Amino acid sequence: MIEMKVAGIALDAVSRSPVVLLRDTADRRALPIYIGADQAKSIINALENQVAPRPLTHDLFINLIDEWEMSLERVVIHALRDNTFYALLTLVHGDTRRELDARPSDAIAIALRADAPIWVMEEVIADASIPVDRDADEAEKQAFRDFISNLSPADFGQHKGRRPSNDPYENS
C-alpha cells in the first residue's frame, strides 16, 4: 500500500465534473478520482478547516465516532472495477477493529476530518495513477533496464564466500 495525501480538488476540463487528486508522499504519482459536487464541497471544507453551523453528513459521522469512543485508523482505496473505486474505513474501538465499505469520496472527506491516513493499494496505483515527475520515472526505468542488462546467470548462484550447509534448518 502507498500512503496518499489530498492534493486538491479540480474540475475535469471536458465534463466539468469535480475530481479529487491524491498524491503519494514522494510526489511521484497522482491518482485522480471523479466525485460528486457535494463530496467535493465537503472535502474542500475539510481542507480549509471550515465548520458548518450544523453538522453535515461527514461531520455527523465524525461526531458519532467520537461519541462512541472509536477512532478512524485509516482509509484504504483497495480496488478499481469497471471504472469505480472502492474504499474501506478501518474503525477501532478498544481491541475491536472493523472495516466498513465506503465510497472513496466519503472516505476521504471523513479521513480529512479525523486526521487519518489515506492508503491506496499498489494495483490501483498501477491501473489508475498518472505520473507527476516524468523525469524521475524515466530515470528509475532506465536504471532498472541497466541493472537487468548487466545481470548474468552467475548472479543467481550462491552467495560468494559462503559454503552450503548440511543443516536442513539453517535457512528456515
UniProtKB/TrEMBL annotation:
<protein>
    <recommendedName>
        <fullName>BFN domain-containing protein</fullName>
    </recommendedName>
</protein>
<dbReference type="InterPro" id="IPR036104">
    <property type="entry name" value="BFN_sf"/>
</dbReference>
<feature type="region of interest" description="Disordered">
    <location>
        <begin position="149"/>
        <end position="172"/>
    </location>
</feature>
<dbReference type="Pfam" id="PF02577">
    <property type="entry name" value="BFN_dom"/>
</dbReference>
<feature type="domain" description="BFN">
    <location>
        <begin position="1"/>
        <end position="132"/>
    </location>
</feature>
<dbReference type="GO" id="GO:0004518">
    <property type="term" value="F:nuclease activity"/>
</dbReference>
<dbReference type="InterPro" id="IPR003729">
    <property type="entry name" value="Bi_nuclease_dom"/>
</dbReference>
